[in-house]
Fold this protein.
Amino acid sequence: MLSQFDRLTKILARSLELDNDKLVASFRLAGVNDIPEISALRCRVFSSLVKEDDERYLRWRYFHRPGFSSTIWVFELSHQIIAALGTEPVELWHDGDIEPALRNMDAIVDPEYNRRGLGAWMTLALQNQNNCVLVTGGNENSTSMLNKLFTALPVRKSFKIILHSKFYLGQKFHYPFVRRLISPFFDFAFKSYLNIKWVSKALPKNLLLVLFNDIGELPELIVDPVGCLAEVKVVRSKAYLKWRYVDKPGSQFWAVGALDEGKLLAYVIYNIENGRGLESMCEGKIVDWYINSKTNATQILASLFIAATKDMKKRGADEVLLVLNDNISEQAAISAGFVFRNLQSDFFVYHSKLSDSSHIFSPDAWYQSFGDSDSI
Amino acid sequence: MAENTMSRKDALELIAEAINESVDDVQPGIELVTLSGWDSMAVLLLMAEFDDQFDIVLDEEKINSLKLVDDILAVLEQNNVLND
Amino acid sequence: MNQNFSVDGKTILVTGGTRGIGNAIVRALIQGGASVIVNFVREQKKADAMLSEFGEENLTLIRADLTREKGMKTLVAALDGITLDGLIHCAATGVHAPVKDLNIKHWDWTMNLNVRAFFDLIVRLQHQLNHGASVVALSSEGAVRAVPNYTLVGASKGALESLCRHLALDMCDKGVRFNILSPGSVLTDSWKVFDNWEERIAKVKSKIPGNELVAVEEIASVALFLCSDASKGINGHSLVVDRGERIVF
């Protein structure tokens, strides 16, 4: 009996007027020379959402991973790239073991070939080659397909701290003069709330708080990349952190850490995105964190969340966002004054060998952060 | 002519399974675009089922012409698959 | 018919010939007896349907992305040994958005096909254009007037028009004419890039004398005229084909 992949290969091949072998051969890893064509396809599909430095982003994301010459797949038909699917090889830690996994992202199909099943087929092809595949996010075109091919987990809890009320009030009150009138009161209220929450939230006395102005210093201090948060997580190794947060072009990340006798016990990585234009919101994000101590874990993390938020406030952030899942992180965020906003079910997991009872299909077991998506 | 035949009820269940929707939501008169599961994966699976079970080949033009659940049933009817 | 108005026996290259106005122009040229070479980059099925309809005797298809060096080389290689009596540039693209959402990448993408590719083609094929050849570039009202969310495409068409005028001067000693064909509002799929396309069409119709959009066949007729010897006296000009849309205040 044919597998689902083989069945759908036959159907898609016929639809594209190829034989099965040619269809499979048309799906290949991209080369650096393909970057302009991939970027042009992204322009065609995403139009004005494509950023100015798109080719630089593609080069970093898919051609600068140590140990991998290319991590983006393309589908080529009649010498034209008509679809692409980006991947990020990662290490997944669960049940005391690390196994290789693949994150999928940046999936696009030329509109001329929409609704042929090409996106689904490419996803199945990668599932065929990899035991474990993860996807974060989706859009109206892909969510339905992702729900069919993966297990969706509600693991992304969104939290926020408001530092300046201008944009918050902009969503609630239509008239600018009303906003100008009441924003000082709201600013005072938000500031007072945080002052109360932040009282007595310093690090334990035996730990030293360090602000990393040069994020390049952080990966060098990593000894045990797994840490003690959650039972399932993508490991942030030294090499991965360096690629993700030091080498990423066009972005600047900062970090705060807690040192215990010179050894890195915990860290929080954050960044700020400025909107376009003088009147746009400056949005801070806590993108990743780690702790290697169960003792006082909540207190230590809360203290670092606060230090990061204070630094972002100094740097002009109007709001600070945080996405998390595990219990310790949630308690730390609430202790630091973050307020819960919503729960998203846009994290998808596939594993070819593990049953539904495995930890990786348990929502409570996962560590999650903005760093687990390609939005950062 | 298809060697396999089935009832309308079974056909609707087959369609519902391909689209990953409840069979209560996949009934005559329903517009396919209103079904969240009607995506490219559903199209592929439907084509695969029609090919495997009934030797029916759905080409792109035919797929694009499918607007209602009834249209899918009509394809089965035209190929003498429905036995009621 | 006065033979001056005929394109019978002429060999004409049309870029973007599988859709919209380009497609109508290809049809008109073939029906007029021309041999047409159609460049396209997507919609293979439409291209195949055209080949089935007109046959290989009258129609040659060349699939090539003119914004890529690889595509340009493919097209030029396919035209090796062929001399052209006409070249009609219909291929176009663009990002339709307000400036606040645009960046330089969108500029490059729009200009690369709309203007750069046209210039690149002329440079590479200039020695294959026969004496008396006619080159036509498809423009739009956005070249001369400001249209909402049309900044990049409008600017590209403005550049294209100026380029044609300068090429008309530059290549007159080779006997090659350059003209611009500027259609008015035509009902093609291009409207659907705008969210409120139906509203836009209704508004436009109300301003046109006779309240009807110009048909693609009417545009194609003028393209055919510009490729014929009857238009020999027209060089470096824009011909507006819009049923009078632009004359109305």
